[in-house]
């Protein structure tokens, strides 16, 4: 296929849905429950709701929305640390738009900005470096977050800062790694997933081989998937075909973009600048070993965590927030007690309602709810 319309062809989608239904009905009858397939990536969650894919599927297959939205899994304590840096009188805090709205225990970055903190939205860490060049009297901090997809650009920015001798730039690093996260999800007790739609963007960097353990050790199929409707439907069909055949392999549906070996230059930049943290805290999932990275000692001069005194206090989620259960696929967003009531995209209580890749925001924006029903709080409408 060459043009984007071809990836949205309704006739081809219809054929795939018929095949998915045939296989899912058979597999669900064998299991006595629906087949559970997790899409790991928040980009897939967004596409699934944007194109109404969930409502096209039979009840015999259930899509579980995984933890692949980096904004959504940021714990409250890290947001508080970031706000503390932003409120330092000599600091300029820079970050992507979504991250500015993630609620901390007292306020978000956006609210800190409204109270006078110098917080600026950027489109790339290199924009932050430009700001550092033009404000040599200020400490310019980039609030870096994301999986391996965004890690290379942050790493290259640190390398560039070093090469240019820019000393007033630093990184508040919240980059996270996908493989330990999937492993933690697979090991969690309340978890029943039969197969995975693998993340397309992360895999462009890390390739397909790191997922091998999921097939070998956990005997679950993984299909690396693209983001168009036919990509997602075809990948789902490939997962079901493997399950039907009793296979557990790593397949690459998104081979037009994802090389088997990933991107060696990007991996090299990551390897030069970052090292694994012993553990990292995730919103709703708790602490996961080796699931985050930090700057190596070689680049300590660019580490905001060393330059600023941070509160670094672990803050419990609000009692009414059920983000953790949604992230593990135990409940659907609309089953959270505060969904569409106290928690909306305009007034997010949990981070899953902040980013467009968050499952709750995607449900809300595109009218998600129990299958076949429309959202009782459509986009733009505030609930009491
Ligand atoms: S509705 Fe809000 S509080 Fe509930 S799970 Fe979603 S984001 Fe979290």
Automatic annotation (TrEMBL):
Pfam families: HypD
InterPro entries in alphabetical order: Hyd_form_HypD, HypD_1, HypD_2_sf
Gene Ontology BP term (one): protein maturation
Keywords annotated in UniProt: Iron, Metal-binding
GO MF term (any one): 4 iron, 4 sulfur cluster binding
Residues in coiled coil: none
NCBIfam families cross-referenced by the UniProt entry: hypD
Family: Belongs to the HypD family.
Name of the protein this chain belongs to: Hydrogenase maturation factor
Species of provenance: Dyella choica
Lineage, top ranks: Bacteria, Pseudomonadati, Pseudomonadota, Gammaproteobacteria, Lysobacterales
């Amino acid at each position: 296929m060459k043009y984007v319309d071809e990836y949205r062809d309704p006739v081809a989608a219809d054929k795939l849905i018929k095949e998915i239904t045939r296989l899912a009905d058979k597999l669900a009858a064998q299991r006595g429950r629906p087949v559970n397939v997790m899409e790991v990536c928040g980009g897939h969650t967004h596409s699934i709701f944007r194109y109404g894919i969930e409502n096209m599927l039979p009840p015999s297959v259930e899509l579980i929305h995984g933890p692949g939205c980096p904004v959504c899994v940021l714990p409250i304590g890290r947001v508080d640390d970031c706000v503390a840096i932003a409120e330092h009188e000599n600091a300029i805090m820079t970050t992507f738009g979504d991250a500015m709205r993630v609620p901390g225990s007292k306020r978000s970055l956006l609210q800190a900005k409204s109270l006078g903190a110098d917080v600026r939205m950027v489109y790339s860490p290199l924009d932050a470096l430009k700001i550092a060049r033009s404000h040599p009297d200020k400490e310019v901090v980039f609030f870096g977050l994301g999986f391996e997809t965004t890690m290379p650009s942050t790493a290259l920015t640190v390398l560039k800062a070093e090469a240019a001798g820019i000393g007033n730039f630093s990184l508040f690093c919240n980059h996270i790694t996908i493989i330990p996260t999937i492993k933690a999800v697979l090991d969690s007790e309340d978890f029943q997933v039969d197969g995975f739609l693998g993340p397309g963007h992360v895999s462009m960097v890390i390739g397909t081989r790191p997922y091998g353990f999921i097939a070998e050790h956990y005997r679950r199929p993984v299909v690396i998937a693209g983001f168009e409707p036919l990509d997602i439907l075809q990948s789902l069909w490939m997962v079901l075909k493997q399950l039907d055949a009793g296979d557990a392999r790593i397949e690459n549906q998104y081979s037009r973009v994802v090389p088997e070996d990933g991107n060696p230059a990007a991996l090299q930049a990551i390897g030069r600048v970052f090292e694994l943290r012993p553990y990292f805290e995730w919103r709703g999932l708790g602490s996961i070993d080796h699931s985050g990275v930090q700057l190596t000692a070689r680049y300590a001069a660019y580490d905001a965590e060393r330059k600023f005194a941070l509160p670094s206090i672990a803050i419990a989620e609000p009692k009414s927030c059920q983000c953790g259960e949604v992230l593990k696929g135990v409940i659907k967003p609309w089953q959270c007690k505060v969904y569409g009531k106290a928690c909306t995209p305009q007034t997010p209580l949990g981070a899953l309602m902040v980013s467009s890749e968050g499952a709750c925001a995607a449900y809300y924006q595109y009218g998600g709810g129990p299958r076949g029903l429309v959202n009782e709080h459509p986009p733009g409408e505030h609930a009491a």
